[in-house]
Model the fold of this input.
Amino acid sequence: MDFAAFLAPDGWLMTSGGPRYLQLSQHIRSAVESGQLKVNDPLPSERDIAFLTDLSRVTVRKAVAELVRDGIIVQRRGSGSFIASRRVEQSLSTLTSFTDDMKRRGMTVTSTWLERGIFDPSPEEVFALGLTHDERVARIARLRSAEDRPLAIERATLPRSILPDPDVITTSLYAVLAEDGNRPVRAIQRISAANVNAADATLLGVGTGAAGLHIERISFLKTGRAVERTLSIYRGDAYDFVAEMTTA
Ligand code: 16G
Done:
């Protein structure tokens, strides 16, 4: 990266473009989003940025502080600022919900509804959920984002007796299940590689065929009853699933 050219103010700083520190942080943010700046790339020192942008040290410090707060850059003591990894590390040893996971990281969750309603189950759903022959199901499909960044598409099916009215969900499915004492306590999760199809790619903001993780989760109550079967596609460039292992 040629920082002298990248930071030269005539390329991006506008007199009518709002606070200068925000213009600078937005300029760096856009370069990260477009891939011009990559994970672990070092940023010049605040003093050098001030020199190259012709902005004051105070303005540069404010822009950097904003980027640190939003997790775009990390500061390592003694060695400066670097573009942060934006991957989410997700433990495979505890059964958590998307909302819980993101809240713990201080991130705001948004969900876009793709489908919700009561349906006749498919044969796979009957099998996975161990449904009786006339039982109907609730299906909910959502695009899930953190800090407005789309991370996954989750398509969940639950027995209607567990979720009679899918419209009651506002943010968290597991929070709604917990209210009725139906929050799952155990799950089986199968993760496999997938190339994201065109429709899902558009929703996730990735190219068609991009690397994704296909995840099936079937979760159970203490009684052993299956309450949820969710098929998800997670962005391969955003997630690391991490399992801790010990010798037997
Ligand atoms: C997680 C689960 C998903 C579950 C959802 C509930 C995976 C791969 N999936 O994202 O099966 O339905 O949490 O989240 O971990 P919510 O309570 O925020 O709706």
